[in-house]
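Feature request, filed as a ticket because there's no other form

It would be nice if the structure record came with a short human-readable summary line next to the tokens. Right now we just get the raw output. Example of a typical job, pasted below so the devs can see what we mean:
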Amino acid sequence: MPTELDNYLFDLRGYLVLKNAVEPAHVAALNTELDKFRALEPQGWHGNVHRADNFHANGKELQNIVEGGEPFERLIDHPAWLSHMREYVGEAGTFVDGLYIDECFATLRASGGFLPIHSGGHEAIVRTQYRYTRGKFHCGQVNVLVALTDIGPGDGATMVIPGSHHSSLQHPAFKGSFNDRGPMDTVEGAIEMHLSAGDALLFVDALAHGSALRTNPGERRVVIYRYGGSWGATRRGYVYSQALLNRLTPSRRAILQPISPLRAPEPANAV
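Raw output as currently delivered:
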């Protein structure tokens, strides 16, 4: 369960770092599965995993990664962050009780890669909102980013502007289109989130974030799961395969499919 200090810091900064969230053997298994996608070309499919690079410098982006193998299924209801998600999404005890993963992907970033600044409280988007009212959190989307490699200086670390989920004003770095912005290294007020493999960065999506430029050789690997209310829908329209849903535990299936499809029965004389 999140502690009182967790809740205070999440409210104050918009993020938490969960040290050693995923054990080394699990991290190794995730990396082994990711190796299978190395040759996947842009817009290519491997099973129900889709390479859909979101930004030219971000690196390989493997969408719907929960379909990438059993190690990714274990992340759905991982005990290191599941209670935090229930607390911060905040629909517990209501008629829309429950969680939903609306996007899950892995990013493999080589030297020269980065992601520009985006999001922020000034956008006031319901889907990514931060809200605390009447003694409860109500966040539209809370992300968990798991480092699968050590991420330090020069590795293209995720960068955040602490407290920006509360801001009503736009940071000047947002000027220009998303595609025209550079890495966040020179953005005033932004900090790099250095993580060891297995650490998790948990943050509300309303927090302004992006990444530094990767200058080191090698590859930065992370996997990101985005949690919201049970009433959500997948951001990019991916449909989980029936094979995946069939083999999941009930608790995991309830997160990927909190509301089961309801269809009229087939007529008795249907051909």
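Something like this underneath would help us a lot:
The mean pLDDT is 94.
The two ends are 53 Å apart (CA to CA).
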